[in-house]
Automatic annotation (TrEMBL):
InterPro entries: CARKD, Nnr, Ribokinase-like, YjeF_N_dom, YjeF_N_dom_sf. GO terms for molecular function: ADP-dependent NAD(P)H-hydrate dehydratase activity; ATP binding; metal ion binding; NAD(P)HX epimerase activity. Keywords: ATP-binding, Isomerase, Lyase, Metal-binding, Multifunctional enzyme, NAD, NADP, Nucleotide-binding, Potassium. Its cofactor is K(+); Mg(2+). The gene is nnrD. The lineage of its organism: Archaea, Methanobacteriati, Methanobacteriota, Stenosarchaea group, Methanomicrobia. GO terms for biological process: metabolite repair; nicotinamide nucleotide metabolic process. This is ADP-dependent (S)-NAD(P)H-hydrate dehydratase. PROSITE patterns: YJEF_C_3, YJEF_N. Residues 31-214 form the YjeF N-terminal domain. It catalyses: (6R)-NADPHX = (6S)-NADPHX; (6R)-NADHX = (6S)-NADHX; (6S)-NADPHX + ADP = AMP + phosphate + NADPH + H(+); (6S)-NADHX + ADP = AMP + phosphate + NADH + H(+). In the C-terminal section; belongs to the NnrD/CARKD family.
Length: 479
């Protein structure tokens, strides 16, 4: 099963959206997200590698070096170096020293094949002793290009890469680093691709669409960590859902969605029981949730990893939610909990639709994603906001993300309850912002899958079994 980002045109002119891109330093994890999203938009990894390697070669040629040594690792950073070697092979005497870990990426293997047709000296090394047989190539080099690890490098470097880095540092040749210096290497110049990852980098564009950065996509799923084999019960988190009364089905939809999104235990505080054996029902004292239930609810808030407030709640229990929120570590506030004064947890995610946003801010967010993003970012809401719509807008006031997944069939009642439950489960291990981005993307993708078979007959409950097929497809496919 392959799930792609939506390819319909963005419903606005993207030329004015550059203000929502991150122009400061970004993390390697964020860059991997952007790369993956770019590929889902039709820019292949091989194309990105070609662009990066070409930019690297142009910078390297500024040194007018007669003898160039390019150090290449097994990952895509090494592939960037191999592309640069191919481009420079007619301008200089190029030697490529490449690490054979036995686990080259597919694109890097492709670049090695291409390089075999060029006038380049190619030396493979597998261990430290292999490097010691070629000390002369370090001493003779006029320029050394570091393409060993890039964004894949972290912590202490092991042999034989440690020796390779030490030899580069001992050389008199300047060192040009591709994208991000390998740990321990001393760079003279850093050629960063798309965005800088460390200070003093020179940034070169490699053709990544802006939507890959400001939009959600399959790259966001890379933030989710695989569970280890020795995990124990409860590692997926305990979720508490507070809702129901006027609309009894809503909290149960949220709870089931949270389980499908990875939560281990879900408790539902609601007046009405529905026969769902996977969910733990916590009954209330009457037909609605009132202050009389606080003695039951507050201890559950204290023990839960995430508390979801609002599905099917009705307007009369707002004071209860305000009191409970003081005991919530991480909270998702949806539906009727979105009233003033706003409840807030230590970390809060608010999931309003347009009408709810207007109710809590007194401001209509507008129609275009651009206007809605401005409205959310300037709303002074104390947390992360997921403003639902044809294009969802997610913001923590510092960052903006747009989600295009979903279909018109998702206007059916209850889909917002499913989304809230998914976000609650994701918040166990992720920040509110990342949980909102992934939750919106995954729920929209699930809607697309179900619409393919159910059309406009889709119900909110139909969405729930599709959620894990999106969130956990790497595990399901054995990747």
């Amino acid at each position: 099963m392959t799930i792609h980002m939506q390819h319909q045109p963005f419903p606005d002119d993207l030329t004015r959206y550059s203000e929502y891109a991150c122009l400061d330093l970004i993390t390697p994890e964020e860059m991997r997200r952007i790369d993956h999203n770019a590929q889902s938009l039709g820019i292949s990894g091989l194309e990105l590698m070609e662009s990066a390697g070409t930019a690297l070669s142009l910078v390297a040629q500024e040194y007018h070096a007669g003898i160039v040594l390019i150090l290449c690792g097994s990952g895509n950073n090494g592939g960037d170096g191999l592309v640069a070697a191919r481009h420079m092979s007619r301008e200089a005497e190029v030697t490529v020293l490449w690490y054979d870990s036995g686990h080259q990426t597919r694109s890097t293997r492709r670049q090695l094949e291409r390089l075999s047709h060029c006038d380049v000296r190619s030396i493979r090394f597998r261990c430290r002793e292999d490097l010691l047989h070629h000390l002369d190539i370090f001493s003779k080099a006029d320029l050394i290009v570091d393409a060993l690890l890039g964004t894949g490098g972290a912590g202490t470097v092991r042999e034989p890469l440690k020796t390779c880095i030490d030899l580069a540092n001992q050389s008199q040749a300047p060192v040009l680093c591709a994208d991000l210096p390998s740990p321990g290497i001393i760079p003279d110049r850093i050629c960063a691709f798309h965005r800088p990852k460390v200070k003093d980098s020179e940034v070169y564009d490699i053709g990544i669409p802006i939507l890959a950065e400001i939009g959600t996509g399959p790259g966001d799923l890379l933030l989710m960590q695989e569970r280890k084999q020795n995990v124990h019960k409860g590692v997926g988190g305990e979720i508490l859902v507070i809702g129901g009364g006027p609309y009894q089905g809503a909290p149960w939809l949220s709870g089931l969605a949270a389980l499908r999104a990875g939560a281990d235990i879900v408790r539902i505080v609601t007046p009405h029981y529905l026969p769902e054996p996977d969910l733990i029902h916590i009954p209330t004292s009457g037909d609605t949730i009132t202050q009389n239930d606080l003695d039951t609810i507050i201890p559950l808030c204290d023990r839960s990893d995430v508390v979801l407030c609002g599905p099917g709640l009705g307007p009369d229990a707002h004071e209860v939610i305000l009191t409970c929120s003081e005991h919530v570590k991480k909270g998702v506030f949806d539906a009727d909990s979105l009233r003033t004064p706003l409840p807030h947890a230590h970390e809060s995610l608010y999931t309003p639709h347009t009408g709810e946003f207007t109710r809590i801010t007194g401001r209509d967010p507008g129609l275009t994603p651009y206007d809605r993003a401005h409205a959310v970012r300037n709303s002074d809401i104390p947390g992360t906001v997921l403003l639902k719509g044809p294009v969802d807008v997610i913001s923590d006031t510092k960052r903006i993300r747009f989600n295009q997944t979903g279909t018109p069939a998702m206007t059916t009642g209850g889909t917002g309850d499913v989304l809230a439950g998914v976000c609650a489960a994701l918040m166990v291990h992720l920040s509110a912002f990342d949980a909102a981005c992934i939750g919106a993307y995954a729920t929209g993708c699930a809607g697309e899958m179900i619409t393919n078979t159910h059309g406009y007959g889709m119900t909110a409950r139909d969405l729930i079994p599709a959620i894990p097929q999106v969130l956990f497809r790497r595990t399901l496919e054995g990747e």
